[in-house]
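Help wanted!
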Amino acid sequence: MAQYLTQYLRRTLQAHPTRVATICGTRQHSYAQYAERVARLGAALRGLGMQPGDRVGMLGLNSDRYMEFFFGTWWGGGSVNSVNIRWSAAEVAYSLDDCDTRILLVDEQFKAMGGELRGLCKALRTLVYCGDGDTPEGMLNYETLMAQAIPGADAMRAGNDLAAVMYTGGTTGFPKGVMLSHDNLAANALALVGQGAVNPSARTLLIAPMFHAAANAFMMGTAAVGGTFVIAPMFTPLGALQTIQQHRATHVLLVPTMIQLTVDHPDAGQYDLSSVQTVVYGGSVISEAVLQHAFKRFSKADFVQAYGMTELSPCATYLGAEEHRTGAARGLLTSAGRATLTTEVRIVDERGSEVPRGTVGEVAVRGANVMLGYWNKPEQTAAAVRDGWMYTGDAGRMDDDGYVYIVDRMKDMIVSGGENVYSAEVENALSKHPAVGASAVIGIPSEQWGETVHAVVTLKPGASATAEELMAHCHTLIAHYKCPRSVEFRPALPMTGAGKIQKAELRKPYWEGRSRAVN
Amino acid sequence: MAQYLTQYLRRTLQAHPTRVATICGTRQHSYAQYAERVARLGAALRGLGMQPGDRVGMLGLNSDRYMEFFFGTWWGGGSVNSVNIRWSAAEVAYSLDDCDTRILLVDEQFKAMGGELRGLCKALRTLVYCGDGDTPEGMLNYETLMAQAIPGADAMRAGNDLAAVMYTGGTTGFPKGVMLSHDNLAANALALVGQGAVNPSARTLLIAPMFHAAANAFMMGTAAVGGTFVIAPMFTPLGALQTIQQHRATHVLLVPTMIQLTVDHPDAGQYDLSSVQTVVYGGSVISEAVLQHAFKRFSKADFVQAYGMTELSPCATYLGAEEHRTGAARGLLTSAGRATLTTEVRIVDERGSEVPRGTVGEVAVRGANVMLGYWNKPEQTAAAVRDGWMYTGDAGRMDDDGYVYIVDRMKDMIVSGGENVYSAEVENALSKHPAVGASAVIGIPSEQWGETVHAVVTLKPGASATAEELMAHCHTLIAHYKCPRSVEFRPALPMTGAGKIQKAELRKPYWEGRSRAVN
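Answered by r_m:
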């Protein structure tokens, strides 16, 4: 038979019923309590009309109830739709209607949007309020539903059965619902476990947003081995520092921006981070400078990186602890790692043929992690997944040892005077300037060169620098044709829900009325 | 998409083309060479008429070519039938015909039987000789086929596609072909990796017979992380000691009998076994005395145990290194461990309901490891796998922490005067007598008690003991009703291909013309 995610829960319940499953604020549940609540929620959702495979949505900050939502929906036979909390009500409504999500859970933070969605959303039948305090009119109360439910049997969905629909690309064009199966998520979780990213004694901090594939993977990996979850509602640098210290978190997932904000926090040195054994990062390119700083702050921790995308459940490659410890001189810290235990990775040209090692091409990934497809979008699925290979849209190269180096999104590559310029390389150079907080390098139209290199930069608090200084700084580090020709300062960069910089937004004003090959 | 076993090979080839894949006698192949040979064999088998899913047999001792057979068959799109080398030609012929195996590879050791099979076997079309020396008349030469083949593309069989047919039960009634899928074998391999049984720097000794599910699992686990295989043709105690020392093997799989023979070997102390990091054992019950002796001999090694059966690909439970290091006082060394990362385990009564912890019942297992079924035996499949649960036929109990203790085969349990006697417990008591080499305890018919406890014993070389001495010894350790009422001495015990004692053979003369509930 195939893999099924509820196996994780029952297996841990059998061996460790008194182990702490979730810690969330002042609430704490043992695995016995957690399993009971999952079985109740599964029954409650069935009572609300959830049929096998039906989507159930969650719109909320991180919480223990978010964990219950995942496993309770699966237990009851449904599929989760973990909604991007950074979206507008209109975007959320689109995604709920797109995959016919009839039941939606909302927490305190999103109860107003929940009410708004009722008017916007055709599919929505039932709103369940899973926050604390009074239940808004027209919504059902989560704890009441749980209390009234009779814990039911596991629906035993498995294998290729739909486990999750996760929406991506909401910021450019219409969002696409990535369909992931039980086998997809389980393969990814086992790869993380097999590569040592988590272990059974993990006290895993969930502070990156749980709706997102990265946190989901970290959660599933920890669930597969039956660890304890320390759950913080949302990322703040101080929240990360405090929660790690208070609950002695051992495993922490942070996207690069979060790592930077955490280790740069003025009080970072006052917190005891010695419990952290492993920092898992990924989601976007990290600069070596940030990484070296993080090594110092998390001085007892191993670092591991996973690279991937939602469509890959989400891991494609993995850079392990050993490589972080010993690979700096070989340049491995700029690598995304090698194919995970359950994937194959190739760098291909436009025709899908593998290019020689060292040559930049598109990263393509095959394996048990590759999504079932995009919800109701067979053409986009066929374009993205060809012969079993998922075309990531990322530009990268591979060295002789199989290490992958992501140089850019295919669409963020700048072609200037016939030369390829990888924005990540320019951003890495900029990050080494002491005044630079974050940067985004984009191609802007040029009569003479086709595109020229343009940098959008935020400065660190209290720091200052001129455009000329930053351009001169880049000239000391990278080739002339890669250096920014113009620099623009902003207080902040536009970010996606996944913590990625929205370069399409930055490019838009420059390209208005013009055509770019990809946008 | 689903899992596929050839992914292991390509993933390692990409990262470690010069790593040693196989060491076999004086031959050694890098992963680049090995992958090339696998692709050639796949093409050669297709050239011989192998269609997708077709079974290809191998009858031979362990060798690097046996490894090539597994991955080459999969690469070419076929399914492996690894033939029990301890069977008679008639038994082999039955199994080849049963699942329509048309191509059979035989090595030097089995070339005579290969010739014999041509007359006995209806399905067999092509015999390939993969030994050294002259190719027997009417057989094709393996190396010639390889040299002539043009390396072909991977057939990319995956998921529920049939990967292997492994025959069990050849000693009692008709053998059954256990059908295992790519997903089955991959789930088991990932569980072994995730639980730390192997790692990427493993130099894995394959000396237990490769046709068997236990060695297969160990091979697949090592293959999943891209380790090196040190392959010895067949188990001998001296061969194990020498090969470990010569090739600095790090991971070793031995069944309990093999462990005992190895550590009891008079020259064992003269060999350097310090390279061994992990001893994996399983396949039958081990006595604590043997285990404690093995701890001393393999003084640098962790011990891990896997319990299962071919139908479970084969692991059901796993007892890890930590439990071996610290669990002796709690009695964990007599446990088979807990559910693996990919399984659930329950102890059930005759109606399939879970029994309370501590109560003996039948061990049932569910999860991604459970076989597709028995080849062409839907009724036996339906009897063995009910609601996704594989009924193992083993009697066991589970403690409050989820540890499983196998007390007997259901059919080896002795019911004497209304009391259950577990043969394993009696054998454990016998094994603590200094003169006892091995023992098998069976129930024999009794007018008064229904069954009485009978022991068949081999003595250690040069040792002596009387039946009365052994019975008196047992009285000091176990309850009166469990002690043997009769003892029989033999020079050796009849063994199956898996190294298990054939108790049915021992029981047979006593039960001739009588009925026993199970046999």
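OP: Thanks! One thing I noticed: Chain B is about 30% helix and 25% strand.
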